[in-house]
Amino acid sequence: MTKVPVPFSEPRPRPSALDLVSLKSAGRRIVMVTAYDATGARLAESAGVDVILVGDSAGTTMLGHASTVPVTMDEMLVLTAAVCRGTHQVVVVADMPFGSYQPSNRMAIANAVRLTKDAGASAVKIEGAGPAVARARAIIGSGIPVVGHLGLTPQAASLAGSFKAAGRRASEARRIVQDAVDLERAGCCALVLEAVPPPVSARVTAALRIPTIGIGAGAACDGQVLVWHDLLGLTGGRLPRFVKQYAALGEQTVAALEAYAREVRSGTFPGTEHTYAMPEEERRAFEGDAV
């Protein structure tokens, strides 16, 4: 009997970061969340998020640092590759860590290539304007999509030792609007606005063709992003005012671990249902070997 060849089916390609512009044009709100490993990424994709940001916030949430500044390119490569392996149908944006793009356009391009070619990211994200506009333009010129980030920029804030909302003064607000326009002109495909007053983010959103993704920037933005650990209730200590916790997984995790510890110490875990049976004849033969 002749076998009918099964037609080859190409896997559906990962959406392009450039598609985010069409979501804004269609008036569809964009959902972004951070994730740092394959499991978290898979769950986020299953929930239907549009974009996963592999944030250098992993420095504080996953790696135990006091800020994002110590995060290295090698660490971001490992985290980004894990997220990409765990997903197929979401845009993956990788943060470029501090020191990976600031020194020169050449370094910025080389490290952006590593995050996209080697780790699989759809786009990279850089913070700030000024010299960062030139870095964005250079990376985009090499064929790699870039997401900008204005307002409170954690890398700069960590070095300055001051985490404050940006754009509260009219002069600063006007600067943010102009910086946003400059980043769009450089070719950025989206813009994160962090800790920016709503009137400012509304002005930026209206001025741009590319989507704005807010975090502490009000509802006028085209989308929102929250950190995985914050929204799931895994973060300890004082949280920023813009965080909404949608679960209390930290408390549930501690309770589960306490129950596990109690059962191990009392001898009730593991039970017979958690073990593997041995055929009776094999058991007798084995026990007959005992001296």
Per-chain topology:
Layout (H helix, E strand, L loop, with lengths): L19 H6 L4 E5 L3 H9 L4 E4 L3 H4 L11 H13 L5 E5 L9 H14 L4 E3 L5 H11 L4 E6 L2 H7 L9 H17 L3 E5 L3 H10 L4 E4 L7 E4 L1 H4 L17 H18 L13 H9 L3
Parallel strand pairs: 1-2, 1-8, 2-3, 3-4, 4-5, 5-6, 6-7, 7-8
Helix pairs in contact: 2-4, 4-5, 5-6, 6-8, 8-9
Brief characterization of the structure:
It is built from twelve helices and eight strands. With 291 residues, it is α/β, with parallel strands linked by helices.
Tell me what the structure shows:
It is elongated and about 85 Å long. It has 2 domains: 231 residues, Phosphoenolpyruvate-binding domains (TIM Barrel); 37 residues, no CATH class. The longest helix is centred in the last third of the chain and has 18 residues. It is 42% helix and 12% strand. The chain is of the alpha/beta class and 291 residues long. An 8-stranded parallel β-barrel has the order 1-2-3-4-5-6-7-8, surrounded by 6 helices. The model has no long low-confidence stretch (mean pLDDT 93).
